[in-house]
Design a protein that fits this description.
alpha/beta; 11 helices; two-stranded antiparallel sheet; binds S-adenosyl-L-homocysteine; ten-stranded mixed sheet; DNA polymerase, domain 1; TIM Barrel
Length: 348
């Protein structure tokens, strides 16, 4: 690849920033809107942008780059139509996205980093650590090109793929503003969920931004002892600290938080854990999403039995907690939570 990496990543720029850039080039305002439309529509080159003068297109090609991701691998579930993409990025790294077909609309699950630095014991995405953050445009591309390639109109986004979104805070916020923009893909914040392992300080900053997105917090244990065993981040932000931030988030935004809880046999699934979880969340109006642990061959952790899950659910419901169990989509293509990883390992 000979492209100059110092060139401008225009697809990460908001319309007002494009406007300032184009004004510097002596171009009228309305060009920014045109350019943003092309960028949000998945243009593969500046040459395609035929409603802009040729000289401007060549000038843009000199100072900026557009490298849509390549589909390195695409798998379609024979069972439920879930589509999993492995994208090759411009620097040769890989990330995954998954398109899920729900009755309420097609949902894409996007990655926010190449790899992950959080080190959760049950998650395949963190094997090998974090390679780098994704740019806003690389996150946006996953939504845009999943839609273009699959032909499925995307109406919802979940940031639950590879990476910790709040550990790539600025690029993720920029992505949200881009994808939400009325002149862009125009996906409403209420149709976007962001999942975090609990970077409490960042949850506090996010609350101040008052976006109307849904925040999911990967809790996975109600007490520090259990949580620190499976989630190293808990040593920096313990359960109480995370729950405090969640309370503030709810007070500030009015948006209820959803807690994710992967059921791991004999680790976080005892009646005592259910009781503690119920006590910790009682009266918050929060909702618990139980995820049957997906087997990650590299880890020795195993899923809870269906009987244990049933008892866990009953114990939570008895304490007035609203519980749902996550449905497994695309099981034949390893598309479920925790199974996305530095997939070069899978493809070679
Ligand atoms: N870093 C963010 C985004 C990942 S979202 C976060 O931690 O929330 C993916 C969700 O799947 C998280 O709740 C994560 O904890 C969960 N998960 C990871 N590995 C899993 C596995 N093997 N089985 C079930 N859920 C898993």
């Amino acid at each position: 690849m000979t492209e100059n990496l110092d060139k401008l990543d225009v697809k990460s720029m908001l319309p007002e920033e494009l406007e300032a850039m184009l004004a510097d080039m002596g171009e009228p305002r309305f060009r920014a809107k045109q350019l943003f439309k092309w960028l949000s529509g998945g243009a593969r080159s500046f040459d395609e942008m035929t409603n802009m003068p040729k000289e401007l297109r060549s000038k843009l090609a000199e100072i900026a780059y557009l490298t849509p991701p390549e589909v390195e691998r695409k798998q379609v579930s024979a069972l439920d139509g879930t589509v999993k993409y492995l994208w090759r990025l411009r620097d040769g790294n890989f990330v995954e996205s998954v398109v899920m077909r729900y009755e309420h609309g097609n949902t894409v699950c996007v990655s926010s980093q190449v790899g992950c630095a959080m080190g959760c014991a049950f998650c395949a995405s963190t094997i090998g650590g974090k390679v780098r953050d994704l740019t806003a445009s690389e996150i946006l591309d996953q939504v845009m090109f999943s839609q273009l390639d699959s032909g499925l109109k995307i109406s919802n986004i979940v940031m639950m793929g590879i990476g910790e979104p709040l550990n790539n805070f600025d690029n993720v916020i920029r992505f949200l503003r881009l994808v939400n923009h009325p002149d862009g893909m125009n996906i409403g914040m209420r149709h976007i969920s962001l999942s975090t392992c609990g970077l409490a300080e960042k949850i506090d900053i996010l609350a101040q931004l008052d976006l109307q997105l849904t925040l999911s917090v990967s809790l996975h244990a109600p007490d520090d002892e259990t949580r620190s065993r499976i989630m190293p981040i808990n040593r920096a932000y313990g359960v109480e600290r995370v729950l405090d931030s969640c309370r503030r988030y709810f007070e500030r935004t009015g948006r209820r938080i959803s807690f994710e809880y992967a059921m791991i046999r004999d680790v976080n699934d005892t009646p005592e854990h259910a009781k503690r979880l119920g006590d910790a969340l009682a009266g918050t109006g929060c909702h618990v999403n139980l995820i049957p642990l997906n087997d990650v061959p590299e880890s020795r952790l195993r899923p809870s039995t269906p009987e244990t899950m049933r008892r866990f659910i009953a114990a939570l419901e008895k304490r007035g907690i609203n519980v749902t169990v996550r449905r497994k989509l695309g099981p034949d293509i390893e598309a479920s939570c925790g199974q996305l990883r530095r997939t070069r390992l899978h493809t070679t």
